[in-house]
């Protein structure tokens, strides 16, 4: 509809437009804060113990974080829609064991085939979560808590006390964790590629934007005609798929796997996402932020080892970092709200 | 203005809608022409919002037909309404607070380049241009959360424009705007009208209706009353059509002896909600507080019960200033509050009647932290009998009761605290007529026992019949105070719609 350009009273002042800009920058400050926190850790720990910033150690940190990073990407997709996926660690464990078992039971089986099969399995397990939440209308925290136990239970049943040993799996599979591309360990490359793809999807596809929309205001999403259920379902399915990638990396890295692989790991994943500034109530956050969150947590873990601190500190400090991150987030939000109120009163 | 032969953009006939026991719309009609602004006015509960939701595709009529450009249609969802060129701007914008302005306008249909990527540059340019045609300069990259409500509404309007809407429905769009923002909005609406958009302007601010609209349609109690050109209908006639003439015999009022001032409120202000509110409430008096949606009635009640804090002003009880910092302190001072939404705030639906009644006085019924069941039953039984709560027993859970009996349980609960001042917020909303009369009888009886009662209601006949005195609020300020004799439908409604010249006091007449 064309609208003619007559004079309209009371155009907006420049000052108000600028205030809008300040607010919009503020809401992007979350990732910057993480980078700052990371720098702080590097400077403080690096000063105490230069070994911390050696290329070798940095490589070690990133390698350790790569699996967490992949899972954090999947979790971010889900959390953006105002849901959560607690079953990811169980999927990692199940995939890692099933892949190993396939190699053990079928010597000479193609590595590519096994990878394809377990990726499909992850996708399917994620799809079950998605169906429970959308079609079944079960709140995500309950639905995935249930599948957390169910998937792990299946893992125990299949393993029935057995273990996959290093000798059970072919070298080509182990190479996924051991190989390098341009001197960079393959897991890091894989994670980086996934982060790039996910960032692209979230930024440049309608599907990606709909993840934000559904989480930001489900009712508004319905009114503008988005297919809410399909979007949420897809997020869970993708989270399952990425958990399977995590499971493959896990199996390749450790070689020896039993049914307890990655037990309790989901909490670290959620922690990374939350520390990474992804709003647990949906609609806000980036994959880069979530991965930075994972790196921050990984660096703290590594630093405590390097500084030879009592490992018992680890949990408490990780918890403190989570609280700090959420607190800062809440402060920013409240600050925003107050600025808005002030402007409305004018 | 349309010509007589012009085809209506929207034509509703014989629309009926029922929600449970409530008849929201009874065979109403509405016609919108291209290039015209039509006002839809009516009291609270007249059925305006239901009609709007029907045009938005959120509700479907039980009976009746909807025609768009002469063609009969079924609007079975928001998308269907949108496809027919209908855009609805709801009272509270339905936007994505975390996403930026441009995306809110283009969600789900973002422009894409030839690789299928979202073309942000094109989207920002488009939206900037769109807003410029509205004469507005809003940062299109700012998250909507950061915008004032007025600007959020502009985003909604821009969205409607980008969808090429031919019918624009605005539900109380000015409710949270400043005078300047209203002017700006009106200028935009007039321009859209001149371009042939059919506009429905739902409002209860008559001054705005007269400033903006070409025609007025009046609804009352879910029924159609009249449609007339604005120029041919005086404000008085409109108000009379809105309130009508209704029986008052439903509300029995006992004469109570009115005593000393019990509650004195002066200069009570809560920024952005209400300001400089002052009144006295005497022993044995029923003080009616009337106002339309957004007048600030409930907000004042919440401050008087210590839920919210006032920014300034004083509250005196029995001549002594009091600080009401929490509901507990309000209770200690003898103030009881029956909230508007009894489901959300008044009852624990899953609990038994007895447990609900004794909830605020639990400490009194307990010894060493253990509840004395016998005393609980005795106290609850007392009030339940007194108020004639109809239930199978005190153990029946509250959810199983009818609306009227639930309300009696809520009343019992507060009576058990022995309040001096009882604030009743919409005490008879959603209650059948028989029980309504009973609730009125109870209220009236409480006053004769010396309780001071603040009766908040959006039902004018109820206020007029029950109250010894009426204060009227309009957008957070007291715009009128009437004695029982001086209060009638017209005087009160004039004050409630903010008609300045009608600022009248106790002895004022029309």
Molecular structure report:
The complex is a heterodimer of chains A (346) and B (510). Chain A is mostly helical. Chain A has one domain: ABC transporter involved in vitamin B12 uptake, BtuC. Chain A contains 14 helices and two strands. Chain A has helices at 14-26, 29-48, 55-80, 88-105, 111-134, 140-159, 171-178, 186-204, 206-216, 218-223, 228-254, 265-275, 287-306, 312-345; strands spanning 180-181, 184-185. In chain A, strands 1-2 form a two-stranded antiparallel sheet. The longest helix of chain A is centred in the C-terminal third of the chain and has 34 residues, at 312-345. Chain A is globular and about 65 Å long. Mean pLDDT of chain A is 83; it is low at 1-13. By secondary structure, chain B is α/β, with parallel strands linked by helices. Chain B has three domains: 10-243, Rossmann fold (3-Layer(aba) Sandwich); 246-334 and 419-510, Rossmann fold (3-Layer(aba) Sandwich); 348-418, no CATH class. Helices cover 33% and strands 25% of the residues of chain B. Chain B contains 18 helices and 22 strands. Chain B has helices spanning 48-55, 78-83, 101-106, 120-133, 149-162, 179-194, 206-212, 235-243, 297-304, 327-332, 342-346, 353-358, 362-365, 373-386, 403-415, 433-448, 460-466, 489-496, and strands at 10-19, 22-32, 37-41, 63-68, 71-73, 86-89, 167-171, 198-202, 215-220, 223-229, 261-270, 274-282, 286-291, 312-317, 320-321, 335-338, 366-367, 370-371, 421-425, 452-457, 469-474, 477-483. Chain B has a six-stranded mixed sheet with strand order 6-7-8-3-9-10, with helices on both faces. In chain B, strands 16-19-20-13-21-22 form a six-stranded mixed sheet, with helices on both faces. In chain B, helix 8 crosses helix 18 (489-496). Chain B is globular, with a radius of gyration of 25 Å. The model of chain B is unreliable at 501-510 (pLDDT under 50). At the A-B interface, helix 1, helix 9, helix 10 and helix 14 of A face helix 2 and helix 6 of B.
